Protein 1
Amino acid sequence: MARRKSKKKQQQESANAIGGLIIFGGIGFSYFAKSIAVGVVAVILGIIVFALISYSINQARINKLRRSGIAEIDKMTGDQFEHYLGQLFHLQGYNATVTQAQGDYGADLVLNKDGKRIVVQAKRYSKNVGLKAVQEVYGAIAHYKASAGWVVTNSRYTPQARTLARSNNVRLVDREELVEMILRVKESRK
């Protein structure tokens, strides 16, 4: 199964394609106009437009991250992150319970909504989250009699963690999805 490209990667690829079209269009324009000077001007204008588009995309991404508050999350302790997620899920209609810090049996939060129970392993990391988090939440599903297990991080996942999660039906919420979730909650509260 192919992995879906992130919005950031899709936007960068689109900007690169536009840049390439502009440059080649300028070269083609110079050929048809029979003037190298016109072609050079077209290429320069194309490069300027491409730079402005790239700058705009980057600024939009920076503003989105700033609005989400992900930089503050990156500074939290693990316990603070667990409580933050509890509040975030509560605002989405879940009955969220943060488990005890020690002996949590692989779940940092237990979510209940619409008769379904979900166990969540929270990982506030500065590096990629590996297999262990997926294994822990998968083990917690049976213990807490849950219907699903999620791992939520402010970071990203290793390829091995993604493979194991896919084969065990564990949902992985990475940095990009967490930012989107935060922004949706903030927007719904306006």
Protein 2
Amino acid sequence: MPSALDTPRGAAELAESLLPPLGNRWLHTQAVAARAEEASAAVPEDDRDLLVAAAWLHDIGYAPELRDTGFHPLDGARHLEALDAPARLVRLVAHHSGAVYEAEQRGLSVELAAYDREDSAVLDALIFADMTTGPAGQSFDFDVRIDEILVRYEPGSEVHNAISKARPYLKGAVERTRARMVAQPM
């Protein structure tokens, strides 16, 4: 039986219960979910709702009440796991947008490794949605988005270092998704 959390509506309701006080983070999340909907043709039909649900939930770990490690992919995944969300949804949130690179910077690789990372069209499309959406929901080209992150975070910070290292991986996911979208128009 599917969980309400792995449906776009159930995921949106949970995100809306946690993120609106965070202002731009909520705007970003709504736009990432819309972008994931646009990119859903790039994933198998059976995975489209999961993709959009993961987009709604990808940043819930920023909610102050969920903050434990301070690393939002891990804090969000742990919260979803505590809610008995489907394991695949938990793993997608844990590994969105190259989280493994930032986990390494933060000394949280072992904790993140508790969640297997899938190499799939769904994870690629989630990365695409996040890495083409600005911090206040703007639609950005991939390179503009990466540059925006690198300007926003101080050189030498965990995020700056992680994004710098992750850039080729993230670009590959975005390019694979764009190619799938062209090959499978809605």
Protein 3
Amino acid sequence: MTQERAGAGTFKGNPITLIGPEIKVGDKAPSFTVNKNLVTEATLADYAGKVKLISVVPSLDTGVCDQQTRRFNEAAAELGDNVVILTISVDLPFAQARWCGAAGVDKVETLSDYKSKSFGQAYGVLIKELQLLMRSIFVVDANDTVQYVQYLGEMTEHPDYEAALEAVKGLK
């Protein structure tokens, strides 16, 4: 049975239900399967041994998501080779590639949860009513232990970029 968290957040002030567990600091990062493109998949294990900043956005084609992804792309250069920044949305891989090309985003890896919503359900960010992912940030260390979590209360708000980046820097 899938866990639902009614009223776990809002979209423009309207309550939404999140599907999946609430991940907490100290938890083992759940495995997931997402798409790099239409045929190539990626899993948590593909990033073994690296610090992972997972930036979750509803859609790259919206203002806050655009700014969030650009902000982490800018920060990537100062984080070093042991850190990977993953931006996960349910946008189709075609749309993600087009957006990255137009935005000049080349240091963040975009991954799509459009097929099975595996990431959304595993991390408790799948919005039942919209079938989008709730804006959130997860920092996972090289041993796949969650070290930082931010679930946004309101989907249209910005995450705490500095807190997430400080959490990553503390693990390098």
Protein 4
Amino acid sequence: MKRIILAGALAFAAVSSAHAVRINDLYNTGIGANGAGDTHYSLNAASSDTVIGNTVPVITLDNVWPISPWLANDGTSKWITPTASQGQSFDAFSAGTYTYTLSFDLTGYNAGSAGFTGRFAADNDAVVKLNNQVIASGSGFTAWNGFAANSGFQAGVNTLQFVVGNWAQNGGNPTGLRVEFLTSSVTAVPEPSSYAMLLAGLVLVGVVGSRRKQVR
């Protein structure tokens, strides 16, 4: 009986080492000081009016920018924009594209078990891509759009992109992105020692069961 209890404890230890945890590095936009660069995201932007190479987007200033009717900044997330000149107008003559990229690493985790949900707002619209596969799209800066994924993850580094389109208007217009993650989870890959413990427990259960049959 004691051996069976020990085997069960070993098996439980192996299984419990693979519990679900939050995914690291899924950051809301605007985590940092107002007016500073949001180093969690990189930005690549291009249009016929403005070309911005790979760079760091800027966190908007509370009570200064964004202007209404953009969703107001709060303690959970803030808008990020292409330049420190946050009232700058872009794309007066043709639509511009602004790609904000967030990377996260699933090394040591089971990529097949990963998943997240979130929401975004964009001026003017955005397509959301996980490892270059579209998972959501939407438009508007006065209300949230949802996004989610429970597949399409890969071992190691993953990339999440928000490809923002800014519509052309006479005189140009501002552009920006806001993102909040609501839930995320992934299962850790058990250490080799955990597999060994599980195997030992199963073998011991089998041996005890065989002996009990022989006694009978």
